[in-house]
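We emphasize that the prediction below concerns an isolated chain of 943 residues; any contacts that depend on oligomerization or on bound cofactors are therefore not represented. The input was used exactly as deposited, without trimming of termini.
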Amino acid sequence: MSSRLSILVLIAVIALLSFTSVFFSGSQSNDIYYPDFLPEPSVDDQAYNPDPLALLEQRRPMRHSYQELYHLSSKFMLNEDGTASVTIIINPQDFGESLSNQIHALLTQTDQPQSIWVAVAEDQDITAAEDLIATFNDSPESPPAEQPEGDPNNEENEEIEDEDEESDQGHRVKMRVFAKSDPWWSVARHASSEFFLLLENGVIPGANYLGTLLRLAHTPEYSRSLLGSHGAVLLTAPEDTLDNDVVIKCLPEKDSRGQVRATEAVDVLTDIWFGRTEALELLSLEPWGSSGKAPLGIYLSTILRYHGSIQSVVVANDPRNLATWGDVRKKDHPPTFCTNIRQLYKESVAWQSWIERGGALVTQNERLASIVIFLSSHDEAVLLKDLICRWSLSPDISIHIAVSGSSRGLGRKDLARLLPSEGCHAGIYDLHLSHVPIKPTPLESARLAADVSVNTFHLINSLRPKVIFYLKGQDASFAEGLAIAQERAKVPVIAISPEDVEHVGWLPDLSVKALENWNTPQVKLVVITNNRPGSCIRLLRSLSHAYYLNDKVSLTLNMDAEADRVTVQMVGSFQWEFGEKFMRHRVRRGGLMLAVVEAWYPQGNDEYAVLLEDDVEVSPLFYVWIKYNILKYRYSSDNSLYQRMFGVSMYSQKFVETHLAGRAPFNPEDIFIETPEYDLRTPFLLQLPCSWGAVYFPEHWREFHEYVADRLLDIEWNKTSLQSVQIPNSRTNRWSNSWKKLFIEMIYMRGYVMLYPNFFNFTSFSTNHLEWGTHTKQQRNSAGTFLVPLMTDSEKLLEDLPNRRLPDWDSLPVLDLWANLATSAELIKRGRALQEQLNPCLLRNGRNEVIWEGQEKDLKCAKTQPYYSTHTTPMPKATQTPAIEKISISAIEAVSMNPADVTASGTMSPSPTPTPYDDEGNDVVDMPSPSQRDPAVPSPTPS
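Result of the prediction step, given as a token string:
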């Protein structure tokens, strides 16, 4: 009984499988989406993309042996009549035995083609061709009809051809006549099948060869490739001089049997070309005649790669089975295609010109990364067209544009007409989205979002971009669908608002790695305020009017213990719409130094802080400047070079405060005008921190915390090793209670620098009003001296930069603590010399040289007295209660850094009335006279 039941179950399963096979046999594979990027041939399309350099860095096929190819997942299915959806076109030189053998080999393939076309020129012996073809058809008395003479691209010819096909259903082998002025393979553009196979004269494929190609064409790895069996790779870079000595690697390489053991991408295929019929429409973008009538292998491989990112691939075969070979004749006749390719390269001016204009070589393909830009409307296309064209000129990036479709007002041709005919190299893909009313119903919106998500996901999966870019506009359904597809595909996204487009003209300057990290940096705004509500609200208003490029930016407001009620209420009621808002209020006065130092502690190396005192005002473009610099210098492929840059200033320095002679006017133009290698407007690196608006980097700020903690403990234990750091030729020790003094000490010994803007007339992204406060006890008549114009024009920002971009790191000028030209190596050397003086415990080698690796941050010897970690609360040193006037060091007290104020017990003595300081920590009332300066320290060379 059980065996009978098993037989019945087996019969049922077989019947179900047979029904499934019949049901699906006539359909093409719709599970793989092939984007519709092929414009209908027309005169208008000549302006579509005449010279595209945008090569797609799609996944190059892995090297697969023949056996490995059959383990790839393929969705190949036959037509309902048992044939494969492929048209084979052959090009005979005569109609004798060679053609007969070729047709016979095609009719005996394990997977039969839908049609076999013999391409015959109008001046050949058409009668002989008809007689031979008739012998291979089921009804020899009804030879296939001849295609009328003329242009094969003519629409009337297409109509006649369609009728011809309908009347020849019983004929597998047909003749197609082409005009003498046209190439033989042009007839392939009229095939109705999904695939084409072009064979040169005499090529005899093995019996399993067509089946191998069809299965590969339905795998994700090879679905967008032009396949063949013979080709070559040029091993020279596009920028090199092209000459007859160029290295050409031919595949398959000559071995004992001339076989291909693994698939490999090549620059050109010969003899055999297999691909999707729709891809042939790309040839209309650069017609064969305009190319100087280049040979088929060169023309087909190059144009499909240029315009459709379709790579040419040599397919592996089984060395033990001739049935898998692309041309079984190679067994008996030594292959000569490599010699032919070398000769073609020498003779083909078109091929060399394609290579010279860039990106035509497989060896260069891995350098390129694709970016897909999604456009939902005509308005978005108008807004982004200039940015797209500039972006498309980036040497290592290929740009691809996906449009919503003509039913929504933006099809392929619509965008092609908007883009300039020259200087814009991008591929266009049509999503064919359905029209949606201006006020769609919830169901219509949901349906549109679903269509967008499905279509864009398939496009992303096909193109494999590094980044996708779109505008978050009024079409919420379109944006929602994109977000779903992006989340599913796990591709980084850049999504900005339409009003921010004018502020991101610098995007083409960023590397692919920087673009991939668009959403990585987290910038925090930290405002330090006390009892100046008017100043604080001015700063907050300027922050509210800035452009944040659709980023979430948090705002933290730090209030000291003396903050008045108006300030507290105003800060509490302030609405911040760009991210989270945090409020912190001290219960005990900490002073400006601790207020700044403790205002922020980074959680990771991707968190940045913009520190702003309340008398600062910012430009609407301050965040644009910050983001551009962070992405450019912190997230490039060679970001290890930038480890000594601790931040980016928003303010342009007009004075240098570190000269022994006092405050000195400073204008970088005076330096760069005498230094031809630097542009007059180039940003520069300066060994000074800016306290009037700057973004600080996380690693350096954590290091600063450790340094400050060590300095406080030095004072607590009455140590002298670092209490009075003597930086040569510097007045920094005058700033006894300034956080900036401590920062300068640290960056001097480490050779750190900050990047400063250098625009015309000191135009900056922040300015300072120098109002009454902790360090400014009276209004100064010279307060206006520190005011600078604020940058408000994004175009002006780019125009003033050298070559409209931030310079590369090694092109930035370096200025030392006194604003004199130096080098990074010199700054490091000076800092290490000072460290050696302060830290005699540094390990040295046999030549008495300091081993800096692993010790560079050891600014002093290990503590010989009990050391309290900066992460725990120190125990009191004495059991008796200290006198009221002697205050122990704590994390929230105002600490004087003057060693003279420290008693032997490590406590602070009462300080006299403090000297008024401005916000840079300089005396307001009295500047030191020359007699008060240390005569033993020489003055620096003026900048």
